[in-house]
Amino acid sequence: MMDETEADADEEAWLQLRPVEPLPSQCCGSGCSPCVFDLYHRELARWEAAQASKDRSLLSGEESQSCPSQLSPETFLAFRISAMDRLTEDTYRVRFALPRNCQLGLRPGQHLILRGKVDGLEIQRAYTPINPANAEGYFEVLIKYSELLMLASGTGLAPMVPVLQSITDNAEDETFVTLVGCFKTFEGIYLKTFLQEQGRFWNVRTFFVLSQENSLEKLPWSYREKTRFGRLAQGLIEELVGSCRRKPFALVCGSAEFTKDMARCLLRAGLAEDSYFLF
Fold first, then answer.
1. Among 235, 208, 233, 212, which residue's Cα sits nearest to residue 222?
2. Is the per-residue pLDDT at 252 higher than 50?
3. Hey, which residues does 139 pair with through a beta bridge?
4. Which phi-psi region, left, alpha or beta, contains residue 106 (left: φ > 0; alpha: ψ -120 to 50)?
5. Mean pLDDT of 137-154
6. CB burial class (10 A; 0-12, 13-18, 19+) of residue 26?
């Protein structure tokens, strides 16, 4: 029999194999059959059966089909990226290889659900291939990346809300957003529920800077890792800009002193004047 430590390790190993539930933003909303949530529930049922029988081989069929021309709505297949061309500042054409000169086999207008990891976060998105229908040995999709850094102080959060909402409401918008809200106290944070909901989207990060708080223990657990104390200053700005996937465009709104300070910090962090907008 396994001791308690071995049992915990085994349980952790199974949890790491558990399918990740898609976020609402990962559903394109067009009535796909199957939807990303259909695929998730099928994978979850397979995982639960494998865990119950302690047989991990039941999971091995997930990506085992030999020819992608036999695409299945119930399984994911592994594809190798064979080329990536930058078309514009934030748009790339990505080519995936198919073995043995296979054709993808989709009809015009049909789309694929691609799954992969970006900075450790698993993402699923729907893409319509742009290659000719008779293309052999490959398929291509267009992927657009852009990055937005929002810096708001107090009521300066207000103009950020519709911008953020327009991004998360649009399943086709793949803009990554980092929003930093600066407030005096935790109780003074506006729109907590809205910001918490937005922070659950795959492409949104939220942070808070509190100038009159000094104890993480007084904050809810869900806020502790994304809250700093004091003022939003040069060091944190450089950390935020450096953590972005690409050089961001910044939106800044707050008091005159706040916007002036942020403009100076952004310049020092390497963002030119045409890379940010002051409300």
1. 208
2. yes
3. 96
4. beta
5. 88
6. buried
